[in-house]
Amino acid sequence: MIFHLLSRLSVKVPSVVYRAALIMKPQVVFVLGGPGAGKGTQCARIVENYSYTHLSAGDLLRAERSREGSEFGQLIDSYIKDGKIVPVEITINLLRKAMEETMEMDEKKFRFLIDGFPRNEDNLQGWTTVMEGKANVKFVLFFDCTSEVCIDRCLERGKSSGRTDDNRASLEKRIQTYLQSTRPIISLYEKQGKVRTVDASCGVDEVSKGVYSH
């Protein structure tokens, strides 16, 4: 099912007028799941097979944190280390800028996988306020995984990732934030019939099969 949805969204649009209309509104799939659920890995595989651009909210925030002269760098750093959710205005501004820059460079790139967003109600309300009528959210791709598996994966990743939040103390905070803040957002989209769930507790290849054969 997900395979067909992604295929339909990534086929070439024959009508120049219709394509222009789509370019005006980015086609978005939100990708959600706990830390370590494999969102980034699976997004990279989807990008290989479909005409999508992967935007990771976390990666954008970490890049902004490291950018010399950033007025938000220290603020972002403190939120990430504490496992808290960065203020929505910062995140949406980075996402919108990334989408605009991508579409300006190539008019055919108007399909986006937005990974790790929206993470709470404030994120969702902020997105609605800023992006209402400016982007079309097709559905939520939810990678479902137990907290224990997520933590184990992140600790293993932390041995080589260099990420300051891949440690047990930060991970436990991030898991609690995810359960308390992000899962209700997923439930909200489920009520709208806009969630496609994939079992992310198995190996990378098996999860990929779940994406394409769901």
Automatic annotation (TrEMBL):
Region (NMPbind), start-end ranges: 56-86
InterPro entries reported for this sequence: Adenylat/UMP-CMP_kin, Adenylat_kinase_CS, P-loop_NTPase, UMP_CMP_kinase
Positions of region (LID): 156-166
Pfam families, A to Z: ADK
Residues reported in the UniProt entry to bind a ribonucleoside 5'-phosphate: 62, 84-86, 116-119, 163, 174
GO cellular component: cytoplasm; nucleus
Residues bound to ATP: 36-41, 157, 202
Record's cofactor remark: Binds 1 Mg(2+) ion per monomer.
Entry GO MF terms: AMP kinase activity; ATP binding; nucleoside diphosphate kinase activity
Domain notes: Consists of three domains, a large central CORE domain and two small peripheral domains, NMPbind and LID, which undergo movements during catalysis. The LID domain closes over the site of phosphoryl transfer upon ATP binding. Assembling and dissambling the active center during each catalytic cycle provides an effective means to prevent ATP hydrolysis.
Role played: Catalyzes the phosphorylation of pyrimidine nucleoside monophosphates at the expense of ATP. Plays an important role in de novo pyrimidine nucleotide biosynthesis. Has preference for UMP and CMP as phosphate acceptors. Also displays broad nucleoside diphosphate kinase activity.
Full protein name: UMP-CMP kinase
Organism of this sequence: Oncorhynchus mykiss
Underlying gene: CMPK1
